[in-house]
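Morning. Coffee machine broken again, so started the prediction first thing and wrote up yesterday's gels while waiting. Chain of 205 residues, entered below exactly as on the submission form.
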Amino acid sequence: MIKKIIPILALLAVLVAACGGQPAEPTLSPDQVQGTAISAAFTMVAATQAAVPTNTPVPPTETPSPTPLPTFTPLPLPTQSVALPTATTASSGGGGQCDSLLNLAEAGPQSLVRFENNTGGTVGLSLYMYTPNKFAQCGSHSSNPFPIAKNASITVSLPKGNYYAFAWISYADGDQRSAEGYFWNKEADSHLFSVVIKQDVIISK
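Came back before lunch.
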C-alpha cells in the first residue's frame, strides 16, 4: 500500500511546482520530499489500521448451574418414652390378671370341693379360676393336674370363685379323651359339694 501512495505524492509535488507563476527555488531536497511522503504514507496506513474494526472477543456465556432442590428435613421424633403396660401375675397379688398361678394366700375364704371320676378311665384334672373373685385373685389353682384314679374321687380346698375344669382321660386300651365344664364355688356355700367328671363333660351336683 505504501508503494502505491509514494508515486501519487511525488506527482502532486511536481504539479504544484509546475503551476506556480514563477519558478521558485525549491525549499526541500528530493530526499526530504521522499521522507515527507513516506511519513505521510505511514500516517495514512496507521489511520487506516485504526479504522479497521477489531475482533472484540465475545464474553463467555455463563453456563447456568442447576438450582439445588430443596432438602427434606425430617421432623424430630418424640423423646418422651411411652411405657407399655405389663401384666401383673396372679402370684404377686393378681390384680385381675389371670395368666398365672392363683394366689391362694390372698384369695379369701376357701371351702372343700369333691371331684368324682365317672369316666371309666384315669383322669388328670386342671382347675382354673377364670375371672377375679371378690379378693381380685384369679389364675390356675396348680401347675400340675390333679390325678384321679378310675372310679375314685378327691377333695380339694378351693377359694370362692368361678372355675373352669378340664380333664384329660386315659383308658386301659390306650384310648384318650377329654372333658370340660364350669362350676361356681359360691361364697354363701359352706358345705361340701361335688363336681362329677364324665366322659364328655364336667358338671356340678
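Residues 43 and 166 are 130 Å apart (CA to CA). Going to sketch it on the whiteboard this afternoon.
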